[in-house]
Each structure stands twice: as structure tokens, then as C-alpha cells.
Amino acid sequence: MRASLLNGNSSGLSLRSIVRSCDSLALGSVWSPLKARNPTKTAGLLSCESMSTNSPVVRVKEKIDVAEKEKMIFDRLLATVRHFNLPTQLRVAGGWVRDKLLGKECYDIDIALDDMLGSTFVDKVTQYLASTGEEAQGLAVIPSNPDQSKHLETARMRLYDMWIDFVNLRSEKYSENSRIPTQMDFGTAEEDAYRRDLTINSMFYNINTGSVEDLTGRGIDDLRSGKIVTPLAPKETFLDDPLRVLRAVRFGTRFSFTLDEELKRAAASNDVKDALAAKISRERIGTEVDLMVSGNEPVKAIAYIYELQLFWVVFSLPHEHELTLPQECDRLCLAYMDAAWSLLQLIGSLSLTDEQRRLSLYAALFFPFRTITYKDNKGKKIPIVNYIFRNSLKRKASDAETVVSVHSAVARLLSLIPFLESNGDGELNEDGMGTELLDIPASSKLRVLTGFLLREVKDFWRVALLISVLAYPSPIGCSEDAMLKHNELDKRKEVFRAVENAILTLGLEKIWEVKPLVTGKDIMNILQLKCGGPLVKEWQQKLLAWQLANPAGTADECLEWMRQTHSKRIKME
Known about the structure:
Elements: H1 2-7, H2 15-20, E1 29-33, E2 46-50, H3 68-83, E3 90-93, H4 95-101, E4 109-113, H5 118-131, E5 137-142, E6 154-159, E7 162-168, E8 170-174, E9 181-186, H6 189-194, E10 204-206, E11 211-213, H7 219-225, E12 227-228, H8 234-240, H9 243-254, E13 258-259, H10 261-267, H11 270-279, H12 282-293, H13 298-307, H14 311-314, H15 329-347, H16 354-365, E14 373-375, E15 381-383, H17 384-392, H18 397-421, H19 445-457, H20 461-470, H21 482-505, H22 520-527, H23 534-549, H24 555-572
Parallel strand pairs: 4-7, 12-13
Antiparallel strand pairs: 1-2, 3-4, 3-10, 5-6, 6-7, 8-9, 10-11, 14-15
Helix pairs in contact: 3-5, 9-12, 9-13, 13-15, 15-16, 15-21, 16-18, 16-20, 17-18, 18-19, 18-20, 19-23, 20-21, 22-23, 22-24, 23-24
């Protein structure tokens, strides 16, 4: 199975041909993903071509329209300043300013203070609210952690049901051989702007004056021209906080902006790669990756990670174990993800929820790893996909479990697709299938096997089907004929729909929610056992198979079938 999936060749289409066609990939070139909005116009599933240097022209508003709730929040903060007769200038920083200038809503408000810590100002707000008979909500202080490139203490509170973060403007001094600040001072707004990650995120909205401040002189221009540029030299900006490399990728793909060439060279440098691996917590890396995968251009984002030679930094593997990976595994990962994304667009958004879509992309991205394991300290074999989720990205355990379960289901689903696609025509190959099928009529075996499979992957059966379709009857591939590629994807879509409809026709939707008709206690009574064990578990599977084969059957009929079957077995023995 593994060889056919990785090296499968149908009509000249294979994932290997994608890899071979991209041998010339270099800095300044990227995988060019299938254009989801119009598959017929694509030049290919994945092809290597120079990244366009033509930046989009973006419509930027002349002024910020402050929403009513935001005005109420700002008025409260200004009232605090007046109440204590403070000279403090209040500025909304970063993403809120950018999104407002783009005419988008933003619910992430960060307030930058020019003369005090965030926690100090939050105390002032709390005192002011108390003087008006109100109570402050959600107070919290998140300490700085310079070792992980989190240089600022952040204070947080809720106002009018919105979370507001407060930080001080900063100015930093560094030792000669370190990017961890040796001295952190209050800075001017201009100094702080130049310490930001990107020029489009470096602008302020001065609440006191009601005006936008573009203190690098580039923020609005780069926003209009659709460029991802750092305020200072990119290598200096990235070594200050290496996570900014991934943020540059995320914002570039989110807004379809162009990454600056000098920025890309700095991002791919060994110094920045080493700093990203050493200085940034895996949680912060995982959060950025998850935002990319959940975003509007996930394939382009991972393609940038590949292009910038960051793939193995981001999706790190356990170095203490020798692992046998498919040749050019990182390219294969990207190829599968691109094919899955393309197929998702053809299938339509109604088939999968946002969560299922997110995990389907992870399942495709890590599909080349599906058979690879390593041994933990106790000698237990652990899927490498589990390591990537839990250790490299620090994502929740359920993400790892779901993707591993989907990968496990694919091999069995591949064997069932021909029969589900053709409404059960043909004879199932029962090699390797459990004894629970021995007493099941041949006409019911497809429903039983499919039902067992769906009970394992549950709500994610469509995800398993999507990934299986990428490998059925052979892997999606690449050729020069764009129409052929589109036709190939169309065929996969038709297979997906045919199998999906067959499963629904079999009445297996939500089959995992159906409770067994017979309890373990009932089984023990018939077998005359005093306690459970392997025999009870074996009969539970047999009875579940009977229930799947007889969807209208009752508990009494199920028990009677068990008595008769058990009696026959005893006589035969």
C-alpha cells in the first residue's frame, strides 16, 4: 500500500513527477497552488514558477471609522486620564489600525502607553470605574519572558464585553552578542513603531487626538501597495523575535500581499532559522501554524514555509531517533495538502465544518508520515504525526488523535471505495477482517464493515474519505496539461460524492451514536460467565456486527441470534 501511494503512476500522473518538476526550486520561487476559485484556469496542481513581483493595489480608507462600542471604550479610557490628570497618550497599536484602514472589523484592541506599564494604567482604570460605581472585569497580568522573545509585560481587562490589552511603548538596548535586551526603557511612539514586526502593523491610532500615526513613514504606503516589509532591516527584526518570520508569512497569505525579497533572504538565513528553533516556544509556533491552516490561503502559507527552508524547523522531528522518511518528504507533504485544498474547493464548503476542513488539511499535510513511528522511553511505538502535533506544535491531544485515526482509516476505506462507489457490486475481500463477519450474510457485509469504520472516525469520516480519494485509485499527480489535471480532480470529486451518497443510503450517518442493543451483562448471562474478559469483548463485536447488518432488529432478536450462534459453536466443538 505504501509503495503504491507514494510511487503510484496512472497515465503519467504521480506525486513524484511533481517533485521532479520542481528540482529548480530556489529562493524567490514557490509552489504555485491551484487557484481554488476557478480550477479550469489553473496552470497545474502544483508547479514551480517565480513569485510575481506585481503587488496588488489595496483600497485604504482615508480615516478610521470608530464603532460605537469602541468609542465607548475609548471614552472610558480618556475619562481615566482626565480623572487622574495624567499626561498619558493612549494609542491603539498594530492590527486594529491596519484592519480599520482596510475597512475590516477587528475585535483585538491593544493599547500602547507612553509613560507607564500596562498594569499601572489598568489599576488606574479600575480605580476610576470604582469611583463611578462600576466593577472592573477580567483583570490579568501576563509577565514578560525575554528568553522566549516576549519582551513586554501585558495587562488585560474587559470593557463592554471586549478584551483590551495594555502595554508600554518600548525602547531596547542589546549586548554585542545577544538579541535579548539588556535594558528595557519606556520609548517614544516612533521607537516603538520601528520595533514592530511589519510596517503594516506599525501604525498607531492616537485616541487622544483621534488621528492615525504612521511613524515609520511606510505603513500606509505598504498597505496600499500590498507589501510585507519590516520597519528595520529584516534580519534585525527577525532576530529580535524570530516568530515574526511566521507572522510575515501569515499576514502575506492572509491579505495576498507580496513578501519583500530582502525579507525572504533574511527569513531563510541560518541565523534566523536557528533563533526560531531555539528562542521561540513550540506553543507560539503551533499557534501561528494553526492560524495559517485555518486561514484563507493555507497552501500558500505552507508553501512559503517550504520555500524559506523552514519546514523542518516548524515541523521538527525527534532527533534522538533514526527515522526513515519518504524521499523529499517535505515536498510530498505540500503536494498532498495542495491536492486536498483543491478538492475541498470543488466539493464545496457545505460538506465539511470548519473544524473538519482544518483537520483534513493537517491530515493531508502529514499523510506522507502516516506509517512512520518511533519508540518512546518505554519502547512503545508512537506515530510520528502524534509527535509533531504534541511536541513540535504543542497542539491539543484531540487533534493528534483525530489525524492519526483518519490515517489509520484510509487504508481500509481504500479497499471499500470500489464497492461503495458501485453500490456494492462485486465480492469483498475479507482477508484480515475479524471473526465478527463469519456469521453475517454477504449482502450485509459492506454495511457492517463501513459501519465499523465510521464508528472509529465518527464525525471525521468525510475527512477520511477526502484523504482516501486523493490516493484512489492512485495519487493525484502533475502533468503539463492543465485540463487533464482539472478532469482528474473532477473525477476525484465524483468518487467522493458517490461514496458519500452510498454511506448515507446505507443509513450510516451518525452510526457512532447508535448504542449497542445488548449489554455486557446480557452476554455474560448467556455465556454463563461471572466476569468479563476477551470472550465478552469478542461477542460484543459480533453482536454489533449483527446490529449493523440488521438495522431494524430488536434487542430480543439480537439475543436470540446470539443463543443460536453460540449453541451451534458448542455443538461443532
